[in-house]
């Protein structure tokens, strides 16, 4: 079982999360990282935990997931209380990044903040 964040993929300046970006850029990078991780651990199967945002639920995304034998685990609609990102992650990262301008320094700081997250951080969001 992966304990924490698998991969972070920043958007280019002016780019938004859309189904094409999600299928063409984001998911392939995530799956490459998961594949490398699986080779090290010997575990199989992937469950992808997403919210119900439009890019996550688009037909092309579901087709891509099916082709890659990935089981989507989606929250019930309008249930941010079930998403670890909404429960603690965004606020925690926002506090660590306060006052940093959005440029290379910001991306480096974001990567460091994400890398600092532990298995306990994710577990605690459900225990609190």
Automatic annotation (TrEMBL):
Coiled coil: none annotated. Residues 38-99 form the Tc1-like transposase DDE domain. InterPro entries: RNaseH_sf, Tc1-like_DDE_dom, Transposase-MT_Hybrid. One of its GO terms (molecular function) is nucleic acid binding. It comes from the Eukaryota. It holds the Pfam family DDE_3. This is Tc1-like transposase DDE domain-containing protein. It comes from Didymodactylos carnosus. The lineage of its organism: Eukaryota, Metazoa, Spiralia, Gnathifera, Rotifera.
């Amino acid at each position: 079982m992966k304990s924490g964040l698998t991969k972070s993929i920043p958007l280019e300046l002016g780019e938004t999360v859309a189904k094409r970006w999600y299928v063409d850029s984001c998911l392939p990078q995530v799956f490459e990282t998961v594949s490398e991780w699986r080779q090290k651990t010997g575990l199989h199967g992937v469950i992808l935990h997403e919210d119900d945002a439009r890019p996550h639920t688009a037909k092309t995304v579901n087709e891509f997931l099916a082709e890659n034998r990935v089981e989507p685990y989606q929250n019930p609609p309008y249930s941010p209380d079930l998403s670890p990102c909404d429960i603690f992650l965004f606020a925690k990262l926002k506090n660590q990044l306060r006052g940093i301008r959005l440029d290379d320094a910001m991306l480096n700081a974001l990567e460091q903040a994400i890398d600092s997250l532990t298995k306990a951080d994710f577990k605690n969001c459900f225990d609190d």
